[in-house]
């Protein structure tokens, strides 16, 4: 089949490459000329494991091409995907649909013959109606259907998720469009449940799924706080509840709060839509507020471990992206934590396997170094913020020897506390007991706290 994909970001590029790999002929278009030039030169504009090989293979086979001309891509396509960004609208948190509607207008101008226009972008319930209205108004004679086909792939595992999803949701009441979409996804049919729904339901499935996953994370984080106060272990509690099949073990890892390009903005958009429709989602509102507070409290956890002030201290940071195996920094907890540390007068030195370029653009004040051991050099404290596999097997004694202090705040519970203690770290995880600081380090911290109190702003104690 001939497929056009508008928007060559994480979703559009992965979808385009995967559809091509399934045998379709795919034209990916983006208004960002630099992005297209880079792809044409064989350079990936984003980091996603194995994406470069997949793209190269399908370009070489003549099934995948890139361009900037939407009309040209749309003209011959049987299926046209809109996969552009839907960020939070500045000021009110609603999803900003300007890019989606701009695509709809461009598509309207180029439609020839019957085509299925599919919103793959995450959009609020009712957006498909509006896209349909735009197309109908601009091209009353055109023959088309508007379908919702939300995407559930996870960055870092996007290709596997696209090719073997838990389900494919297709929202349309149009029989012809249903047949076209079934044909498109036929190569995946054997191993995947294809769920046909109404268009509005499909739009809501995506938001409801993200809100539910966020809720699980928010819940386990709250339990982690409780464990810390109750001298219990979040590992045991999460394991104990996760074995219940009604709950399930996934998304029960306590941490610094969720971030990323989807959860925070999708939850806000759901909250706004629900309020507009007169059916406010109180639970989701609470999850969103608790998560924002948590990210802010996480910086304080480190500051307190450093004796109440980080002014003039060097804080080494391991991991910047919102999760491993991506270069995506959007809404990463590292942004909130590092901004607070910088505001409190710390020097921040950081390493991330893929995210340093994006991080530097967002926080020019941080110093990026080439490896974890350079992060530790002379650092008063370390903060492990993203659970990259590469950090699992760090040589802890080597890290510790390079440091001036002994604090290791492990926001992902990646390092075994016993191993950290053995290497001489004062290890502070999430939802579990901290290992005690070495007596010498305790003294140094008290001195640093006194210094901080003299030259810096004293910090109120908070139960971080
Ligand atoms: P992105 O920001 O990585 O890419 C969007 C692309 O669209 C950019 O390259 C931009 O230049 C292009 N674009 C914007 N307006 C355009 C226009 N009028 N014409 C042509 N190109 C245009 O976005 P990402 O992360 O791929 O997300 C796309 C959509 O998919 C969003 O609605 C997002 O919520 C949703 N989604 C994202 C997932 C993710 O893991 N990133 C997962 C599932 C859904």
UniProtKB/TrEMBL annotation:
Keywords: NAD, Oxidoreductase. GO terms for molecular function: NAD binding; UDP-glucose 6-dehydrogenase activity. SMART domains: UDPG_MGDP_dh_C (SM00984). Residues 316-417 form the UDP-glucose/GDP-mannose dehydrogenase C-terminal domain. Pathway: Nucleotide-sugar biosynthesis; UDP-alpha-D-glucuronate biosynthesis; UDP-alpha-D-glucuronate from UDP-alpha-D-glucose: step 1/1. Pfam families: UDPG_MGDP_dh, UDPG_MGDP_dh_C, UDPG_MGDP_dh_N. Substrate binds at residues 152-155, 206, 251-255, 259, 323. Belongs to the UDP-glucose/GDP-mannose dehydrogenase family. This is UDP-glucose 6-dehydrogenase. The lineage of its organism: Bacteria, Pseudomonadati, Pseudomonadota, Alphaproteobacteria, Hyphomicrobiales.
């Amino acid at each position: 089949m001939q497929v056009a994909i508008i928007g060559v970001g994480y979703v559009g590029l992965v979808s385009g490459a995967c559809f091509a790999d399934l045998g379709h002929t795919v034209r990916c278009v983006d208004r960002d000329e630099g992005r297209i030039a880079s792809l044409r030169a064989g350079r990936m504009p984003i980091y996603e494991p194995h994406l470069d090989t997949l793209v190269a293979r399908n370009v070489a086979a003549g099934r995948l091409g890139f361009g900037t001309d939407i009309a040209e891509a749309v003209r011959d396509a049987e299926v046209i995907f809109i996969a552009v960004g839907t960020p939070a609208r500045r000021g009110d948190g609603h999803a900003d649909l300007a890019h989606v509607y701009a695509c709809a207008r461009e598509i309207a101008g180029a439609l020839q013959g019957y085509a299925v226009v599919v919103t793959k972008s995450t959009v609020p319930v009712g957006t498909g109606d509006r896209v349909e209205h735009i197309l109908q108004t601009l091209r009353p004679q055109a023959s088309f259907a508007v379908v919702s086909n939300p995407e559930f792939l996870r960055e870092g595992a996007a290709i596997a998720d696209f090719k073997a999803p838990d389900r494919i949701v297709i929202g349309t009441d149009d029989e012809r469009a249903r047949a076209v979409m079934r044909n498109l996804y036929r190569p995946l049919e054997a191993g995947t449940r294809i769920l046909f729904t109404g268009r509005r339901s499909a739009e809501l499935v995506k938001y409801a799924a993200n809100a539910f996953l966020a809720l699980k994370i928010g819940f386990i984080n709250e339990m982690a706080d409780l464990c810390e106060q109750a001298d219990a272990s979040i590992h045991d509690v999460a394991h104990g509840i996760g074995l219940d099949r009604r709950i399930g073990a996934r998304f029960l890892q306590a941490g610094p709060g969720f971030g990323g390009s989807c959860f925070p903005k999708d939850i806000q958009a759901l909250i706004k839509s629900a309020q507009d429709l007169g059916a406010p989602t109180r639970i989701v509102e609470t999850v969103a507020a608790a998560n924002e507070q948590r990210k802010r409290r996480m910086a304080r956890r480190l500051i307190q471990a450093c004796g109440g002030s980080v002014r003039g201290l060097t804080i080494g940071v391991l991991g910047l992206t919102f999760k491993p195996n991506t270069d995506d920094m959007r809404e990463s907890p590292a942004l909130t934590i590092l901004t607070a540390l910088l505001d409190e007068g710390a020097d921040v030195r950081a390493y991330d396997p893929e995210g340093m370029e994006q991080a530097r653009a967002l926080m020019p004040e941080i110093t990026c170094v080439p490896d974890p051991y350079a992060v530790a050099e002379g650092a008063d404290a370390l903060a492990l913020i993203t659970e990259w596999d590469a950090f699992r097997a760090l040589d802890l004694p080597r890290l510790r020897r390079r440091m001036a202090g002994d604090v290791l705040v492990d926001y992902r519970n990646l390092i075994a506390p016993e191993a950290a203690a053995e290497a001489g770290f004062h290890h502070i995880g999430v939802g579990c007991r901290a290992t005690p600081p070495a007596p010498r380090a305790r003294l140094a911290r008290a001195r640093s706290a006194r210094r901080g109190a003299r030259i810096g702003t004293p910090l109120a104690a908070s139960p971080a």
